[in-house]
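Figure 3 (text version): structure tokens given as input.
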């Protein structure tokens, strides 16, 4: 009887970041070094490429329509220190991300984690370290056709009176923002069925399945904890030329506490080749029960 070879997970350190491989196949790349487009939109601390189980890249970086968009990212337009507009992290203006102390771990059960400390450093009117981010990215194989990628992010202000806010318009977008490659007939589905993108935020369930077209098609599920987000606005969804966003705290900037508890938010992606609604719901329940 032939013995089945156990699948292995490995992290590969590269010059500009870390690549996770599942049985030799790429799953995601975490960008640690600052990357720019001819010196514009300098950024680090995001995921790109993200691959599906067929090895296809499912994210975009420096897209022509919004070159500041980058793979799987989490940021806001407004970063204030007191009454000074310190930076616009959304468009990578007056800020850099210094990724420090990356630690990786792989486990025999098909899971892997990457932890990092990230300094949000002002380069404009406020030339100081403004925020310290603690990032944990957890990978878990679900099957040969699906995996999950969870993000646990904590932001601690390093200065007094630091505030974060979304776009200063009725859309109020900002927060966890996947820039996923979209098909011409992209479909959006929550627990109750099809969701139609609007100009402003849409109220939908705690997860959205972004598929090629139909509910059962391959795609990416975006999950979050809307009931735990401060001033949650809803979903900003776009069927072309854009990111998808669980928007918070909206256009009014949120004051971050220097004392614990700091601002913490958790999101998860399911990258799949077709997943039933019940299985997504089950995975969401597991996600919410994580400590």
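Below: residues designed for each position.
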């Amino acid at each position: 009887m032939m013995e089945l070879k156990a699948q292995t997970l490995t992290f590969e350190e590269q010059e500009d970041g870390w690549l996770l491989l599942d049985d030799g196949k790429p799953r995601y790349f975490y960008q640690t070094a600052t990357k720019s487009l001819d010196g514009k939109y300098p950024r680090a601390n995001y995921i790109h490429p993200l691959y599906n189980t067929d090895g296809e890249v499912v994210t975009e970086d420096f897209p022509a329509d919004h070159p500041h968009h980058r793979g799987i990212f989490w940021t806001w337009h407004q970063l204030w220190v007191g009454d000074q507009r310190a930076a616009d992290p959304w468009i990578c203006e007056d800020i850099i991300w210094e990724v420090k102390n990356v630690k990786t771990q792989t486990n025999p059960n098909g899971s892997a984690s990457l932890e990092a400390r990230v300094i949000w450093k002002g380069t404009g009117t406020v030339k100081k370290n403004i925020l310290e981010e603690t990032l944990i990215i957890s990978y878990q194989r679900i099957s040969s056709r699906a995996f999950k990628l969870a993000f646990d992010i904590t932001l601690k202000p390093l200065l007094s009176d630091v505030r974060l806010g979304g776009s200063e318009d009725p859309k109020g977008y900002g927060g966890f923002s996947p820039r996923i490659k979209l098909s011409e007939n992209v479909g959006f589905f929550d627990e109750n069925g099809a969701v139609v993108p609007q100009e402003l935020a849409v109220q939908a369930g705690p997860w959205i399945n972004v598929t090629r077209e139909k509910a059962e098609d391959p795609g990416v599920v975006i999950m979050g904890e809307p009931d735990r987000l401060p001033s949650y606005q809803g979903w900003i969804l776009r069927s072309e030329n854009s990111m998808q966003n669980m928007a918070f705290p909206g256009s009014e900037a949120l004051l971050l506490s220097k004392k614990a508890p700091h601002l913490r938010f958790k999101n998860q992606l399911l990258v799949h080749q077709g997943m039933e609604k019940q299985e997504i719901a089950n995975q969401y329940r597991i996600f919410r029960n994580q400590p």
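The CA atoms of residues 147 and 281 lie 15 Å apart.
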